[in-house]
Amino acid sequence: MSNSTDYLVQDFDTIIFWISQIILVLQIIFGTFGNIFNIIIFTRRTLRDNPCSMYFLSASIINLLEIYIVILFYYFSISWNWMPANTNIVWCIISNFLTYPIIALVLWFIVLCSFDRFLTSSRNANTRRISSLLLARKMILSTTLFFFLLFGHLSIVLRPITIENKTYCTVLSDSYIIFYNILFVTIGNVLPIILMTIFGFLTILNVRKTRNNVAPQGNIIRNERMRSKDHQFIRMVLFQVLITVIISIPFCCVSMYNTFARVLVRQELSSTGTAIINFTADFLAMFYFTNSLIGFYIYTLTGHKFRVEFKRCIKYGLNIILSENCLMRCLSLKIERTLFNNPFRNTYRRGNNVCPIQQQQPMIITTPV
Questions:
Q1: Residue 215 has what DSSP assignment?
Q2: If DSSP codes are grouped into helix, strand and coil, which group holds residue 112?
Q3: Least packed by Cβ within 10 Å: which of 136, 177, 290, 344?
Q4: What is the pLDDT of residues 207-220, one digit of tens each?
Q5: What would the pLDDT profile of 83-109 be if each residue is shown by its tens digit?
Q6: What secondary structure does DSSP assign to 279-299, as a single string?
Q7: How far apart are CA 259 and CA 55, in angstroms?
């Protein structure tokens, strides 16, 4: 029986190894691309005046931190069996101080987005006024500080221990491990999923009420109707909430089971059962990390204004690259005008450069009367 269990564990380790070679690498690549463009787009003048853009911008920064502090080193530990936190006490403290608050903030910034859209979708003008850039900045700062204070104390009690010639960065107190696991699962995983679901549902109700509301004739309809940009942000947030909940629920269920059944109640499992649970937890953890990269692609599919700004960024970048490397001359005038939306630009080729034609002023001939 032990041999079959050993084979099963080896098979699970092999499967997780090859899955991580694909999924984690793709998450790092696509997550980096998407979140960098999120930061660029949400800092543009046309979007940065909206409170929801501030939440999206902060979420994108946190997502990048999760990619390069959590996902990257998780990839190293699975694929290369390299865990610097186990050999370097300084990195052990720093990584654990950053890891758990960042993982929690990925979900909690989506909660703030859904709360902001709940406010802006309300028919009550006073409720809509609560949503502001000042409030967004305060909420982002206070939420970030709160979670670093809430989960950062783990770095104080961490100690390196050696078991069978292997060094581990861990906590020696079993009671503290139970406390921290319960705290992280409930506050960092379960509660934000519940809250974003509630605010998303309330936002949908507000939108329906607003659409069904008939403004009296003679009144200004815009007082009762949301702006087009707000509608787009609401759609973006609702789709992100839906996909985030779908992605997060399986991992939260396994985390709750590990916390309450295996850690708190100390449920004993067979070797086969332990191998299955560990394999499921590793696989769902990789699936859960998808939350840090889906934002850009959801916004591109659901937000027209976001797509417009993204196209402008691409065209601006292409214009700089082609101009700096003297590649503009390789493009036909038709392609150049299509790419850079300049149909009225007349050009002529002089040597190796493409130069604008100077428009001559019409000659006016006057005759004495």
A1: P
A2: helix
A3: 344
A4: 888 777 655 544 44
A5: 887 777 888 888 889 999 999 999 999
A6: HHHHHHHHHHGGGGTHHHHHH
A7: 31
